[in-house]
């Protein structure tokens, strides 16, 4: 018995480390900030996710991680780990309210400087006065008397965005906005029985926001294809259709972990902090500004030393898989059910895209017009217009390439233009087409032509380097 007890922490650490290493903790940008998606498009059938082995592989890995962390938490080693966290984050936690108010104010100053948005880069605003409202919210955060007004301003911005965007689109941002607003109200309260819950509401707001937004990776994997094609290193060499569901599992389960016991909560927060920071370099300051608030809340969650095991259910290992599956089921039913209720089983875009075949459901998930990124494509020839525009660009670029006096360079330059047009046409097919075989072929064309373009561009660089050398 004593031997099993002494081996427990080491076994738990090994299991947690193995699961953590296997989990896809990759850079996680908000796809809506970078892809011209269509919110009304019908989501992929839920059964596609439930029959995906990589989805269940991700679930299994995370469950091993959670169970190992919970087992470790019950031991002296787990207590030592938590004490170490407390020692590192103690100074921050002592000034937690100052930190949060500063970050909230800095966030609203940042989006004021960006201009033309409501709360995130995705929510464009045509009103200049909205930016000044953001600056006012930042100023109101620094006084306890005015913090409730700042909270009202945050909710007001969300309601203003609702006049321009539809409810389903804005649900991503509701939980976090309500969590931050509730924090400001509770932090300003003189009632201790209210004030003590100010960081709890922040934690729940972030957790729900993460779990809800992660469902996009299961409902709309197509939204992520352009990002993966543009930045293939994000998948760490994993195939796209392996990485996307496992990344969705990681985001959902780490959000779920924020609601669990102290060690699971803090390890989940640490993992999320790494994930969000990893997205800053490839996606730039837009991602940094957009995620600044959620990253700050994650830091506070990690610093929070409160045990917060308020329910007996959370003390048992068996409760972890049971509640995780139940939470995923409720979230998925809410996401798919609400979308079907608002847009129908075939989605609003299906009406426009399938006039010639009313019985077919459209899977057109990306708009052809990046300036109108959340609307279904207009009926009648939008794909055709995109194909023709691509062909016209190709002819001009190929003609310019083959005019090079060196026949070898003329061939390579002309073929690069040809391959780029092939990639464009394949991307148009992915945005507008619905036939499975053609979509698979289009994806293969993109991967093959990109590889060949890279080879030809490398040849051109070598040729130019040789020409530049002195004779």
TrEMBL record:
Keywords: Membrane, Transmembrane, Transmembrane helix. It comes from Ramlibacter tataouinensis (strain ATCC BAA-407 / DSM 14655 / LMG 21543 / TTB310). The chain crosses the membrane at residues 54-72, 99-120, 132-161, 167-188, 200-220, 242-260, 267-283, 317-338. Gene3D superfamilies: 1.20.1260.10. This is Candidate membrane protein. Pfam families: DUF305. Residues 365-460 form the DUF305 domain. InterPro entries: DUF305_CopM-like, Ferritin-like. Residues 366-375 have a biased composition (Basic and acidic residues).
């Amino acid at each position: 018995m004593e031997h099993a007890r002494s081996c427990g922490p080491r076994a738990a650490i090994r299991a947690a480390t193995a699961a953590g290493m296997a989990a896809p903790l990759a850079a996680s940008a908000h796809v809506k900030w970078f892809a011209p998606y269509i919110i009304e498009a019908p989501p992929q059938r839920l059964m596609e996710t439930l029959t995906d082995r990589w989805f269940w592989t991700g679930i299994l890995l995370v469950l091993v991680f959670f169970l190992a962390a919970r087992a470790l938490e019950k031991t002296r080693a787990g207590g030592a780990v938590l004490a170490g966290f407390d020692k590192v984050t103690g100074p921050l936690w002592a000034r937690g309210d100052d930190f949060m108010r500063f970050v909230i104010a800095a966030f609203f100053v940042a989006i004021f400087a960006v201009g033309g948005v409501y709360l995130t880069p995705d929510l464009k605003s045509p009103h200049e006065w909205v930016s000044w409202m953001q600056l006012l919210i930042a100023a109101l955060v620094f006084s306890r008397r005015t913090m409730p007004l700042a909270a009202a301003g945050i909710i007001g911005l969300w309601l203003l965005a609702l006049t321009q965007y539809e409810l389903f689109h804005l649900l991503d941002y509701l939980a976090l906005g309500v969590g931050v607003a509730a924090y400001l109200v509770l932090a300003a309260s003189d009632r201790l029985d209210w004030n003590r819950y100010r960081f709890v509401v922040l934690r729940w707001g972030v957790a729900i926001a993460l779990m809800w937004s992660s469902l996009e990776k299961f409902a709309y994997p197509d939204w992520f294809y352009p990002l993966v094609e543009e930045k293939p290193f994000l998948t760490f060499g994993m195939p796209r259709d392996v990485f996307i569901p496992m990344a969705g599992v990681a985001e959902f389960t780490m959000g779920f972990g924020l609601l669990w016991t102290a060690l699971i909560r803090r390890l989940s927060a640490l993992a999320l902090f790494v994930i969000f920071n990893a997205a800053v370099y490839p996606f730039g300051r837009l991602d940094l500004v957009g995620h600044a608030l959620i990253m700050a809340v994650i830091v506070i969650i990690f610093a929070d030393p409160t045990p917060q095991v308020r329910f007996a259910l959370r003390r048992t290992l068996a409760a972890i898989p049971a509640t995780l599956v139940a939470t995923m089921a409720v979230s998925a039913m809410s996401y798919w059910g609400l979308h079907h209720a608002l847009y129908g089983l075939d989605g609003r875009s299906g009406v426009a895209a399938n006039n010639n075949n009313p019985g077919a459901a459209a899977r057109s998930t990306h708009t052809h017009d990046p300036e109108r990124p959340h609307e279904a494509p207009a009926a009648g020839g939008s794909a055709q217009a995109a194909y023709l525009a691509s062909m016209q660009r190709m002819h001009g670029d190929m003609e310019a390439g083959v005019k090079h006096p060196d026949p070898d360079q003329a061939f390579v330059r002309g073929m690069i233009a040809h391959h780029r047009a092939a990639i464009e046409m394949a991307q148009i097919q992915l945005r507008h087409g619905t036939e499975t075989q053609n979509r698979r072929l289009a994806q293969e064309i993109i991967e093959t032509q990109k590889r060949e373009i890279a080879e030809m561009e490398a040849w051109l660089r070598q040729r130019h380097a040789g020409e530049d050398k002195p004779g």
